[in-house]
């Protein structure tokens, strides 16, 4: 036994002495000018070995043979990582590091260009990088523009499954969402879970929540301008992906090289059988959707180009019966809605200073609610629709001192508020509500004037005119009386295209920038915007089938006035950016609903509506790191949004006795943080954290008992708040695992939504237990939701 032990020790000593050491040496330099980087660090095997470079950027280390993980770092430069296998001496190895200041920006910037956030006279303007958006955690693996926007200061929503976003205290319908000039009337799929167009097809997303260019009009709060990527004229490209929710494919095809190209991007979701896995609350849900965008680019010659874009979206959503409608004995509620739209633009470069753009747009939004009858194959349908047609033209001039734009536009709205189609049902009567027709025209001019290197002024003026057109019947009500069926005393009929009511006015826009130094600037802004078409709803978030309503004799257009100011500062070569903005917005003629209002299939919705004013104000602070191994941003917003409705002294003409009350989307405190950690060419990680004050809701003050049944009694509106909302998300992108073909690139994305399983309340329901009130929460995502998607690019 003793001999065996001695032999064992000899073998161990021999094995140790047999391990060979090799020399590993080289230089660390700047990738741009090849200068040596002194005191740069080279870390080997996670700290087991390491060294610092000398004044010549040289390092020299002795390492054992085998595989080693190398990490090369220097302050202000992007780290470099690789794995080497040491089988002999490696000498004069050169590592070239890239200066972070020379890199392209990867995160949100305040308009285009590295210094434009401090140089241009615009406030509240953000550009969301689509490249960054693809790295952020997404709900159930779906890249989503609207969810990305909610990580910006001043942008919120009323819940996880809300239809749209609220910007600086505005309602969802006060946001103008454009995709290549096409208006999107319903921007989401599945009641707000996903954006209603393929994010992969977008090249840029700009949000104007403060300074709004004079060319935009028709909405009171903001503009979200999405530009689809330009088709390639020289190379075929293909990318797509597969996830638990949908399958995606984008084709970019040159038809005539350097002359004509086509881009087609589509997405389809038929995986609703997976919904119960996501949340048990979704077990009775049936949902599928599809969307398609296409873009054609034709370079006619060196001065003329023609661009055409198409958009199609289709949704089907079935849930349990949501309330009863008349005598319809339905088993469920089915929402079936679609959009189909088209735009075309002709661009003419007159010379190197002047150009002319002319655009035509056609859009149709067709929502319907289907109610399958019990013990029957018949479905009762409630249908509505919006037809939108526009033509506009802009003339642009650019010089060293001026950037001038003048333009005209005309828009036609034809709205079908709704009709009840009974089908074969004998117990349901057909109802047809009067259609609404209108014409909105505008002329605008804008100039950006550079007085000096310090002072720049952007001044614009828009004049808009709105005509409510016949045919139609208008009820006349007794003066000083509430608008209802009892006070209606007369009816006036208008023939086709006759003007029933007209509105209009000037909409001045102004932005002023003054640079304190090359890194810091102060800005001030003023905006006035008019909105002639809005959504009438009595729900917290508008349903896809909510009623769109034009201004008329009784419903005045909304007029929004915004004052804003800000301080902007760039640090350390524009790697870091700090901004502070404050705003105050007053909107007249907002619409709210009377207690117990019912807009569905109402021929005279003004009897259900009240108008008042909204005041919204806030302070937004944002800090971002735009370049480097770790990028991202944090922001905090304090804001308030309050309504005041007082049309008369009667109970039905006031809300909360004519006092100010919190709007449905009033969330005083919000905090967002996004961090992206780039780990070389094969991995990156990202985290999102969101916190906000709970939104208001109306809690009954008690219950009345009548004939053995309890009925809630409501005093004031929005007298309580949901619990505060917070959520953490995580994403891990794994690029090209095992792929050697450089023409074909792929990556997997693993996402964990709601990491710590916070049961955030979407809404609160109330039930009575005797004379007491008890509440319970509706939670959409109450547990962590993992997802895995595969993405490819050719």
TrEMBL record:
Residues 142-221 form the TonB-dependent receptor plug domain. It is a multi-pass membrane protein. It is found in: Cell outer membrane. It comes from the Bacteria. Its main location: membrane. SUPFAM superfamilies: Carboxypeptidase regulatory domain-like (SSF49464), Porins (SSF56935). The keyword Signal applies. InterPro entries: CarboxyPept-like_regulatory, Plug_dom, Plug_dom_sf, TonB-dep_rcpt-like. Residues 1-18 form the signal peptide. Coiled coil: none annotated. The keyword Transport applies. Pfam families: CarbopepD_reg_2, Plug. Keywords: Cell outer membrane, Membrane, Receptor, Signal, Transmembrane, Transmembrane beta strand, Transport. Belongs to the TonB-dependent receptor family. This is TonB-dependent receptor plug. It comes from Emticicia oligotrophica (strain DSM 17448 / CIP 109782 / MTCC 6937 / GPTSA100-15).
